[in-house]
Amino acid sequence: MTTQRSAAPTDDRHRPxxxxxxxxxxxxxxxxxxxxxxxxxxxxxxxxxxxxxxSIHWGHAVSEDLVHWRHLPIALAPTxxxxxxxxxxxxxxxxxxxxxxxxxxxxxxxTQRPCxxxxxxxxxxxxxxxxxxxxxxxxxxxxxxxxRDHSIWRDxxxxxxxxxAGIRGQGGTALLYRSDDMYTWEYLHPLxxxxxxxxxxxxxxxxxxxxDFFALDGQHAMTISVWAKSTLYGTAALVGTYQxxxxxxxxxxxxxxxxxxxxxxxxLRDSQGRRIIIAWVQEGRSDxxxxxxxxxxxxxxxxxxxxxxxxxxxANPVPEVAALRGTQTQLAAQDVPAGxxxxxxxxxxxxxxxxxxxxxxxxxxxxxxxRRSPDGTEQTRIVYDAxxxxxxxxxxxxxxxxxxxxxxxVAPLTLAADEPLQxxxxxxxSVLEVFANQxxxxxxxxxxxxxxxxxxxxxxxxxxxxxxSLRAWQMQPIAELA
Length: 482
Ligand code: DQQ
Known about the structure:
With 482 residues, the chain is mainly beta.
């Protein structure tokens, strides 16, 4: 195994400052996202050998507020000749009658099987169950694509588990199992099977990674990560009814319109009764650039889930994020003239939160520009298009480095008559998280090359728009505690 030589990750201008990430190297999915007493635990797919996917371990961190994290020792490492020798892949953490238990996917020779590890010292060290894997064969009669990732809950005194998979020729699925003791599992049936040929209202691919299933406000919801032919597409939300061990979705939509930049999402229910989701935000630059930087991947801000006005799943940042707000600047209400770029005075930086309310004209575009160089050669535009009823993150000028991704993200957004556009925008070096009107979000990556690409501006096109309010905060870094 070779260790990759690279620059110190902290030297990299693109490395975020207030999003969670390991001190260095590769990170992907959140795992075992859970609360124990007053502490939130976050495990994650981690390669200690470099900034690329390989030799997957479980990294581990703990937090009291979901925002500031303390790194803990690696929780799981592959065991040579064991069922996880190829990697300790994704899974969850559960309290099995007082015993902290991780259920994860062991990968060996391209075969994936569920494994268990337990801790008796407050989640610090983990002992693998000698009888791993706990499910030795996939269900008979099913031709599966993949068999990995776990969502576990207790219902009527029994454990229930979903394992992500695809049924060849049909579509993605989440296979339902049941157990009395967490170690012996009975296969029931697919909780749901997708149709890989159906594209409306959304396409759910050929295989579902990281299914997560939970009750929310009288409904049930499942989040799945859409996979097809080794390509990762994004997180879909299915909302519906769960009855007699079957799930019937009534609504299907993308959970985040940044697609693959919000992937492998996992949720927890905390002691306040909140359903909180977090996801892997992957890179939008080349593998070579990632290896050279010495780090790759980070976590989204944790988001609270709720059901929106149309019954859809909405995700908005946990209120705790406000603890990161530093110096505040405001801009008074004013017109944003058509065809003009209105620079926001005294607001600049690469670690910002912006809260902007704009009243768009009936048929004009308007929005906010971030990471803008004074001459505008670099800029990222977040634009509401009233005619098309959509919100776009336009990255065509985000970076002068052509090797970074430049495609636009588009989210449907229809504002009610006189409803203003309400944007909450988080800029963190190369990370952008945009929340609109509490019901649509777009996560993206941008890699501006210029030191002075730090400006913020307002834009209106075709017709002028009205700025109702603007507040901006410099965001404070979360310390990286070893
Ligand atoms: N990543 C893990 C798998 C999961 C995939 C491997 C999703 O368990 O299916 O690192 O990113």
